[in-house]
Amino acid sequence: MKRGEDDDDDVWNASAVILDIDSGSWSDRSPLHDAACQGRLLALKTLIAQGHSVNVLTVDHISPLHEACVGNHVACARALIDAGANVNVTTIDGVTPLFNACSVGSLRCLELLLQSDARSQALALCQPSPIHETVSRGYSNLVEALVEWGVDVDYEIPHMGTPLYTACQCKEFICARKLLDGGANVQRGSNMETPLHAAAQKDCVSILKLLLEYGADINARNLEYKRPVEVAPPGSLTEGFLLIYEATPRTLCQLCRQQIRENLGPSRLHCIPHLPLPKAMKDFLQYR
Question: Furthest-apart CA pair in the chain: how many Å?
Fold first, then answer.
């Protein structure tokens, strides 16, 4: 997929690849859709100047801004927004331009949309969630940006659980770390199943260790009343690690760090660098 500044070349666009259809076959698409889809900035600006509505929708409620974002055409997205495009428009499936930006890993489109008052998360559980999409695809830089913009890191949807649970399911270590640094609840997963259960099932020792460092309960039980060690693949590295961990007392340093962070609460974790403490202590509290 093309990244960087848009130009006027006729290129095959990312939206057609993702949707697996010929963009030229849509009879209800406007010239603005085509220009935004192909990253044709000059053509797009000309159409806008001629009075074409930037909020024109296809029968599926796809807007030109949707097309610009799914193609990572930042300049086109900016031109549409400057001309009054609705940044929170949703398709009939609940997809927003922000979700499209997340699906292709476009940090520049994501930041542009958030700076233009786009909602950082879905309004209803039935709508596709930008943070879950970002995590599942392993775009850790986008996860960090969404956290900084105040997305709910514990936002739980029925079929995917929390973003942290999704990171564990997809074995995305860096995304899991970004979420935990952003204050994600290490115990919240999907229903009664914790992220630790998901990491154990996937036999992902690195994420398992990360969750335990952040205070995951090794004795938590899921709906089947099983602990993480009991859902790990038999004879796996994960099972062996959990058995050893169960028999090893936690260090006082680890317990103190978890208690301090818990008392601060997720909304005040960003205050740690400003505490009147030695740098080594502040780094320790931030798991650095």
Answer: 73
| Residue pair 85/55 in contact by the 8 Å Cβ criterion | yes
CATH number (domain holding residue 254): 1.10.750.20
Percent of the chain with pLDDT over 70: 91
Span 153-195, pLDDT tens digits? 999 998 899 999 999 999 999 999 999 999 999 999 998 999 9
Cβ neighbour number for residue 213 with a 10 Å cutoff: 15
Average pLDDT over residues 20-40: 74
What's the sign of the alpha-carbon dihedral 50, 51, 54, 55? negative
Q: Look up the pTM and report it.
A: 0.84
Domain count across the chain: 3
Burial of 47 (0-12, 13-18, 19+ CB in 10 A): buried
Instruction: Provide the domain limits for residue 256.
Output: 249-288
> CB count, 10 Å around CB of 224?
10
Question: DSSP string spanning 189-255?
Answer: -BTTB-HHHHHHHTT-HHHHHHHHHTT--TT---TT---HHHHSPTT-HHHHHHHHHHTSPPPHHHH
Asked if residue 126 is part of any domain, the answer here is no
Residue 36 lies in a domain: yes
CA dist., res. 18 & res. 264, Å (int):
42
> Nearest CA to 105 among 150, 142, 131?
142
Domain check: are 255 and 242 in the same one? no
Please tell me whether residues 13 and 113 are part of one structural domain: yes
Domain boundary among the residues 119, 153, 175 is at: 119
CATH number, residue 4: 1.25.40.20
CA distances from 242 to 164, 189, 212 (A): 20, 19, 10
pLDDT band for 267, please (50, 70, 90 cuts).
confident
